[in-house]
Amino acid sequence: MIAFRKIIDVCRAFGIAGDPVRYKTFTDGHINSTFLAVFREGDEERKYLVQNINTVVFKDPDALMTNVVNVTHYLRKRIRENGGDPERETLHFRKTTDGALCLHDGDYCWRIYAFIDNSFTYDLIEDSAIFRSAGESFGRFQRLLANYPIENLYETIPDFHHTPKRVEALKAAVAADCINRAEQVQKEIDFALSREADAGVALGLLEEGKVPLRVTHNDTKLNNILFDETTKEGLCVIDLDTIMPGLSLYDFGDAIRFGAKTAFEDEADLSKVSISLELFEAYTDGYLSACADALTKAEVDHLAFSAKLMTYECGVRFLTDYLCGDTYFKIDYPEHNLVRARNQFKMVEEIERVMPQMEAIVQRIYKEKTED
Ligand code: ADP
Ligand code: GN1
Ligand code: MG
């Protein structure tokens, strides 16, 4: 538990003046620790987003900060050119009083950025119009970064979406079985291994030159979009730490994995876990309305499959972390990662069940968007 005192000290190191008023912890991310800190200067309250970068996950925070600062700088220009509001539509990082992008503090590394007020996130969606807007936001994000110099990006987590390597890591965790959990989860291990043939499909397309390497977000969870309180539209894509060279399929698939489902990511009652074709259609419509003309045929043809691939990969990662003693994802209770893994694998089965419908939806919408 990080105390307000600590957060105030961090704020001072970033040159924030004023009287501390209150703070709040955000609980919707699995990786970083995020706080809102409020200070009063005269009659005005000022809000700051204070974040503790997880240095177990992100081993080179300086490289990470270079990526996000350069990308947000570039985005600000593109957003301004397109008549948008760069203050609210992308992140703004502060420097420390020494001019550094983050504050190294023992095992911790802190950063501060502008809090975007009158915004909120979703962990679960029922209204398809909102998910359509999320698709538009991530499609627009991909489009805005289409000409960003990809060679300038650091790979903040190497092989992040290299699904075959994720499966290898699972096998290694099963073999090591360091806290004796493997026997208890044989069914889940068998499930993961039974789908291994799918793991290399997206990378195979890249090797064959059928899908391009793009600047991708790589963590397109619904709660990584801030929505505007007033318009209820997607406002700002956040959580930019995994921006790296990647495939559009990663971003589309991961967004469907998390957002087009009928239950939370950690719902333990698997009878509630399913894919909503209505939500899938809404996201696809939003996404393709923003970037259909930029996609290759192989990208379009694998959008539906990418939802299965990314759900599978995430299930493999949760299961691996469970077997390794929960060292990567934050957990609220001992079986949390196992519950998450089961939830993902149930979702994989549900996606498989409706794959022909999902493929037909993609082709129909793609045709509509490119004929307009
Ligand atoms: P994590 O990597 O842990 O997911 P995020 O960067 O996604 O961390 O931040 C966690 C949460 O904090 C977000 O889901 C959102 O609710 C909130 N948040 C992050 N950045 C901002 C911001 N600039 N303005 C308002 N809220 C934010
Ligand atoms: C993590 O940081 P957050 O909560 O947005 C993870 C993603 C997973 C996701 C599963 C850097 O995302 O890759 O898909 O949890 N981020 C990192 O919910 O590993
Ligand atoms: Mg997040």
- What is the helix tally? 13
Lateral strand order in the biggest sheet:
1-2-3-5-4
User: Helicity level, as a percent range?
Assistant: 40-55%
SSE order: HEEEHHEEEHHHHEEEEHHHHHH
Number of strands: 10
Strand proportion, as a percent range, falls in 5-15%
Explain what you see.
By secondary structure, this protein is of the alpha+beta class. The protein folds into two domains: 4-117, Phosphorylase Kinase, domain 1 (2-Layer Sandwich), CATH 3.30.200; 128-371, Aminoglycoside 3'-phosphotransferase, Chain: A, domain 2 (Alpha-Beta Complex). 46% of the residues lie in helices and 14% in strands. The protein contains 13 helices and ten strands. The chain has a five-stranded antiparallel sheet, covered by helices on one side. The chain has a three-stranded antiparallel sheet with strand order 6-8-9. The chain has a two-stranded antiparallel sheet with strand order 7-10. A hairpin with a 6-residue loop joins strand 1 and strand 2 (33-41). Helix 4 (128-144) runs parallel beside helix 9, helix 5 packs parallel to helix 11 (303-323) and helix 8 (248-259) runs antiparallel to helix 9 (277-291). The termini are far apart. The mean pLDDT is 97. The structure holds adenosine-5'-diphosphate, 2-acetamido-2-deoxy-1-O-phosphono-alpha-D-glucopyranose and magnesium ion. 2-acetamido-2-deoxy-1-O-phosphono-alpha-D-glucopyranose is lined by residues 29-31, 57, 219, 221, 224, 239, 242, 265, 314.
Compact summary:
The chain is of the alpha+beta class and 372 residues long.
